Amino acid sequence: MHYNPHQRLASRSMAFILAGGRGSRLKELTDLRAKPAVYFGGKMRIIDFALSNAYNSGIRKLAVATQYKSHSLIRHLQRGWNFFRAERNEYLDILPASQMVSEDKWYAGTADAVTQNIAIIDSYDIEYMIILAGDHVYKMDYEVMLREHAESGADVTVGCLTVPRKEASAFGVMAIDKERRITDFLEKPADPPAMPGAPDKALASMGIYVFRWAFLRELLTRDACDSKSSHDFGNDLIPEIVRSGKAMAHLFEESCVTSGDGEVIYWRDVGTLDAYHTASIALTEFTPELDIYDTSWPIWSYGEITPPAKFIHDEDGRRGSAISSMVSGNCIISGTEVRESLLFTGVRTHSYAELFQVVAMPGSVVNRHAKLSKVILDANVEIPSGLVIGEDPEEDAKWFRVSEGGVTLVTRRMIDRWRAGHG
Predict the structure, then answer these.
(1) What percent of the chain has pLDDT over 70?
(2) Is 197 one of the annotated binding-site residues?
(3) Is 188 annotated as a binding residue?
(4) Which of 165, 104, 130, 161 is CA-nearest to residue 51?
(5) N or C: which end of the chain has fewer CB within 10 A?
């Protein structure tokens, strides 16, 4: 098809979001839900960022491939992303691993998740396919990357983060030439290759890939017949294109959406308890690096209808207050001091309790005289009266999950165990 520089390529594209992963580094936080369905930012889920980026970029054909414990994710998509209208040529398909290829075959890898849905994708008559991970937090205009891909004539364009070279060993790293053609793809190298002209920088893969659908379709069909392949984009398909085709790197800083001058280029993998807690609490800062208040690039989500947050009691030691905090609708802060904390919808806190750097997920309850510091409360957890968490790591570790960075995760099952031990 002829490339028209004046037409938005997003209108001829589909976004395929890979959302099947557990995210085991988040420990018990993903016992009941996949990582993309983990709550983030007071009202959202992690997957809302990739979906919102696609929607805001003008892409109206989206698919989400799910696998691990997908009920909470599917329910969120049905409630919060149900505004697509087929009569306007808009679609959001939820694609669980439904054994379409054979009755004993779940999604074997990220590429296989697309392969098993080729017939569905074909029905949308698209020209470009953008593959996205559903578990990263960032704002990006995919149209910029799509246009770069079309203009370069590449077989694949890989979204890349510029990172300090000494930190790049944690990523898949791209070696590129001066034209940004990828010459090598190295998975977590001990000595990452530097960017041309920037010896202290390296390019890390974001897990974002753009293809022409006709090219990708043929590649997937061929890969499906290869018994030695793990059927994965990062392990198999991208390295193969680097070796025998044309792979180009796209720099995230050229398509990152910021809302002011001098803003940092923001991208986070919130895949550990420490990273998740740090990114969450950072939203309470005076000027956070991630602007979720920017109405020109909104993060869409399930818009739950709730009453306003309420703060009650005003006496020394029993004052409902929240300082440098984010408090969602249907929260009641009753005689509690809340500092540098992020409270999701429907949280209840009671008199004389203290919260410092707490991420409290929907429906959690903190009873009287409890004292929490650097804590993540899973949804619907009830903290018993007088319980202190965050001051004695050794004691906390007997009952709860304490991370390397000193963050304590508390789930309902852990509280049940604590209650049984303190009966």
Answers:
(1) 96
(2) no
(3) yes
(4) 130
(5) C
